[in-house]
Amino acid sequence: MEMNKKLNILILIFLLIGCSNSGDYKTRPAPINLDKSYTCAICGMTVIDQTGPKAQILYDKDKTAAFCSTSDMFIWYLQPDRPINIRAIYVEEIDNNEKPSGKWIDGESAYYVYGKDIAGYMGNTFIPFKDASKAKDFASKHNGLIARIDKVNLGMIGLKD
């Protein structure tokens, strides 16, 4: 009986160790400092050479998908075969002069402004804002609409009717 109890405790310890992780997937990684070595996961262009807000998705333990536009990020993100272990999404916020600020914000809580009067260098785009009131001001000024990440679909990008 004593042997069974020890064996059960040992099995429980191994299960706890095997089922736990070191927190690698629970800890939100910081955004990557994109340089010339990063090419867009959709179009293959060098990310930092392009105008407009950029994006990055960090997944697995150390993989990054970089994007030269928020539209390209959504094209990748909305695919059914995308990685399921996304750890963080970052988008580049727009500054008061309507230019990319160089500041990364959480893409999952951002407000995205889009619409027919809001175009990037390669077509429809999504302008990310951390603050809802700034997004509303921009949308009003540019005849745009606002969406959160969970409401964006391929039709908004112009890929589906």
3D architecture notes:
With 161 residues, the chain is of the alpha+beta class. The protein has one domain (2-157). It contains four helices and nine strands. The chain has helices spanning 2-19, 70-77, 132-141, 154-157; strands spanning 55-59, 63-67, 86-94, 100-106, 111-114, 119-120, 123-124, 127-129, 145-147. The strands form three sheets. The chain has a four-stranded antiparallel β-sheet with strand order 2-1-3-4. The chain has a three-stranded antiparallel β-sheet with strand order 8-5-9, covered by helices on one side. It has a two-stranded antiparallel sheet with strand order 6-7. The longest helix is centred in the first third of the chain and has 18 residues, at 2-19.
Quick structural summary:
The chain is α+β, with helices and mostly antiparallel strands. It has four helices and nine strands; from the N terminus they run H-E-E-H-E-E-E-E-E-E-H-E-H. Strand 6 and strand 7 (123-124) form a beta hairpin.
In which range does the helix fraction lie?
10-25%
Biggest sheet, in brief?
Answer: 4 strands, antiparallel
Integer count of domains: 1
Count the E strands.
9
Total of helices: 4
Q: What pattern of helices and strands is seen along the backbone? A: HEEHEEEEEEHEH
| CA distance, first residue to last residue | 68 Å
Shape designation: globular
The parts where pLDDT drops under 50 for at least 5 residues are 18-24
Average pLDDT, all residues: 85
SS-derived structural category: alpha+beta
Radius of gyration computed on alpha carbons: 20 Å
Largest beta sheet: strand ordering: 2-1-3-4
Q: DSSP strand (E) fraction?
A: 15-25%
